[in-house]
Amino acid sequence: MNATSAYFSLDLKIKDTRFSIDNLQDYSLLLQAGEREFQLAVIDVKSNRCLLLEHYNFISVSNTAEYQQLIESLFEDHHLLMAGFWHSVRFSVKHTNFSMVPAALFDKEQPETYLRLTTPQLALHTPLYYRHLKNSIVTVFTAEQNLLDWLNKRYANLKVQVLHHISAFIEGILHKPDHNIQRELFLMLENGMLSVVITHEAKLQYANIFRCNAPADLLRYLMMVIQHFQLDQLTTKIQLWGNVDENSAWFREIQPYFGNLSFGGRPPYLSFGYMFDEVSESRFYDLLSQHLCE
User: Which of 178, 223, 235, 179 is nearest to 205 (CA)?
Assistant: First the structure.
């Protein structure tokens, strides 16, 4: 990365000493692009061990052309991202342009039909979809065609899997081993983007994304979901992931109102070396959960 860049900055980098550039063919590269951040992880597919985590902040982006250029510049400054011999590459987008459709009602020939209410200027985007096989649900979402073309050219020897952040988050939640028979509420808060998932008896019941400009917005949306599904504020199990901690204004805003609120942990199907202890276990859950997406 260019240290003098005016557009992105490295916020976090943790690398396992077991990482070897000679073994890229055994590593899965997980990438996630949000509106204000970019994250990557490297997973050894033989040992299911996380070997690398990085988080970049996007500082100034005013249009899609600048966004594309920003990602291209980040790649060009990163020797690993320019490598093409990975075991697999997954790339998730993080925005509010998505819909969820029962698999029995989904028509893959008309994916844009399901996005008309959620995606302004739909004609400027490319519709994509991901099938959640455990729940017979399809997530339909959009991505910029220029970005897709560039990714496919960048990794010409691989088939890049593109998905929506909410799909990875849902798959991570559904693979948790400790579900109970009651409704449970799972939250991911990253740079003002709140993802909400509700499960009932380990089945997906609800998923949505809200924009939160202030802690009060977080509380308002949570109360709205709680009341809509008639959940008990004191007993409903609520888990929170993201770039928040117990001292943040976001957490302090909601803590007094919920009696069974806690931070989520790392995906149990992955292992981590001691060097990752410096980062909260509640971060990167959606990024790492891409490892489950097929």
Answer: 179
Residues 84 and 137 in one domain: yes
Alpha-carbon distances, residue 288 vs 167, 216, 223 (angstroms)? 12, 29, 28
Structural domain boundaries, residue 207 = 177-266
Residue with tokens 């819909």: 99
H-helix segments, the chain: 64-76, 145-154, 165-174, 215-228, 249-254, 285-289
Examine the domain organization and report whether 160 and 189 are in the same domain. Answer: no
The amino acid at 289: S
Q: How many domains does the chain fold into?
A: 2
- Report percent pLDDT > 90 for the chain: 80
CB-CB contact of 231 with 224 (8 Å) = no
**DSSP string for residues in 217-277:** HHHHHHHHHHHHTT--TTTSEEEEEES--TTSHHHHHHGGG-TTEEE----TTSEE-GGGG
pTM of the model: 0.94
Higher pLDDT, residue 171 or 177:
171
The pLDDT of residue 85: 93
CA–CA gap between residue 115 and residue 78 (Å, rounded) = 34
What residues have CB less than 8 Å from 63, skipping those under 6 apart? none
- Mean pLDDT score, 24-34: 97
- Joined together, the tokens standing for residue 89 give 């590459």
Judgement on whether residues 183 and 145 belong to the same structural domain of the protein: no
